[in-house]
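User: Need the bound-state model for magnesium ion:
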Amino acid sequence: MPEAKALSEPQKALHKLGLTRDIDLALHLPMRYEDETRIVKLRDARDGDTVQIEATVTDSHVVYRPRRQLVATVDDGSDTCVLRFFSFYPSLQKVLARGATLRIRGEIRGGFAGWHMVHPTFRAAGGPLPDSLTPVYSSVAALPQAYLRKAVVSGLSRADLTETIPAEYLARLGEAWTLRDALQFLHHPPPDVPLATLEDHTHPAWQRLKAEELLAQQLSQLQSKREHERLRAPAFSLVQGGLHEQLLAVLPFQLTHAQRRVGGEIAADLGKPVPMHRLLQGDVGSGKTVVAALAAAIAIDAGWQCALMAPTEILAEQHFRKLIGWLEPLLAPRGLRVAWLTGSQRKKERSAMLELVASGEAALVVGTHAVIQEHVQFKQLALAIIDEQHRFGVEQRLALRSKPNSAIAANGPPPTPALPLKGEGECQPHLLMMSATPIPRTLAMSYYADLDVSTIDELPPGRTPVVTKLIADSRRDEVVDRIRAQLAQGRQVYWVCPLIEESEALDLTNATATHQQLTEALPGVVVGLLHSRMPVPEKKAVMSLFTGGQMGVLVSTTVIEVGVDVPNASLMVIEHAERFGLSQLHQLRGRVGRGAAASACILLYANGALGETARSRLKAMMETADGFEIARRDLEIRGPGEFLGSRQSGAPLLRFADLATDAHLLEWARRLAPVMLDRHPALAAQHTGRWLGGKSQYLKA
Ligand code: ADP
Ligand code: MG
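Assistant: Bound-state model below.
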């Protein structure tokens, strides 16, 4: 009905929940079930059960103490039960009049004083009982369960549920359920099925759905990977005596074995005329920046441009300074420069930089997402490097990859194609993403299946392990003593206050108070304050005092800006550590221990505020300093959402499958996906369409 009248409230709510197609409704599975198939005798009820009884009202009256409430007593012939209503319309008294016979449903509680229920639901007794469990769906206020149930029933009856998975693969999974049967079953299970197997998704019908879902994910990722492989990019080979070699020679250190290995993987990608799509992961401090700079050198050697993007100006500037230090002396004799682009730049400076970028004189462009704005025109961008990739949005990453490139467009095929080009693919820059949050293997295999991954699994030598201490907030004085001791040795200290997103004001009060307190406690020491709402120039001024060593203590709310490299800092104090995520804590801890000095991280926690998850996070921090182990535990504690960063905004998270328990289904889907794309492309398309609808393009970012 394209000409439909304005949508009703429940219809609007359906759309909001993404339940627009019949298949969406069919795949909207119950969170739980209610058993309305049986009438229970009170004598057989158990404390805490949700039960349905049929009983006659024997007494009903309003009492006023301790609170106004309507109290009714009912009798089902086996026992009696007291019903309590704390809010009620006068009409309720009529319905619950003595002698009325009702079907009553609610959570039953029993003690010495007999059974009672608070705010049960009820209707007239008699009438047929349903023959399957009643599904309860996740919904919103504007969408009543009854409406949603009907919508699901009709969606289920109309949806196209033809088989998309080749029979031999279903057999391999030991799967006897068809999709239709599985859905029918899960929406309306018979009363005798063990509820636990439905609720923990271990029932075979659930297995079928999880397999389907994982297959859709693998298909869409593999498809995007293949589309990607049809694109073209300039291919580079290492130049003897070129910039790459020169950069290696001027570095004040030897590369670690791991850095050399990943450098080789990246160089191999750059040697192919297909755009690289690689994630470089390595723990904080593992030395990703220099690997990125070496990759840039390869492209610059061949006469192309590189862009390096960081999520904040502070980080971007840090890269900029380092890269200038390393590269500028080498670029200058070639007539090349490093350009700098950020949002807060003055117009004049900015246009000068834009010109450098457009003319190609800037071989390397460093900045924030300003680098990918429309009017930034590269002469010939060959390599885009994104630091802290998970902090960028999907759209921003897509924008970078599709950055128009005048030279490639104008000059046709890229120079030095080492391999024959496949078809008439579009030309794109190579893409290298960097992240300090390692992705656990199961995630890499599922959500990031379209990415190649390189891992730096070794820290540069000479790092002293950071000692982690858990200290109650009531012992702040001791912490201040430790700070004093560090300062006396010429060291510097970070003090991080939590960012409470709902309340910037509160953050600020908290950080300001701490700043004040430390300033008073440490006379003669420069104590700085950095918070999220400060204008960028002010932030920069504070940061430069700290990196320059004039500032002894830096109090900060802006966790992300602390992604800086100050080797002289030896103590990290994290206030309200219980409020931070595990990966965040690990990242913060990684800011110290970068120099030779013995370093420590103090996790301050508020007494009595430690919940179960907070406790397990802090425990993990105490027990391990290994980024991979931390990531694994974080996945365990929080589920995959946090790792995906921006991916989760566009790409649906797996709704049904759980990577922790469904690894065998994931393996199965990984094996099947290429077979389907090769031999059953129509079925593959039908399958992804069914599961992902229009959302699949987001998975490619
Ligand atoms: P991250 O991987 O967290 O981005 P950085 O690239 O900022 O780490 O490197 C952390 C510090 O280690 C920097 O000061 C960098 O110059 C230094 N570094 C990098 N590689 C090595 C190495 N092989 N040996 C010694 N120091 C190194
Ligand atoms: Mg870094």
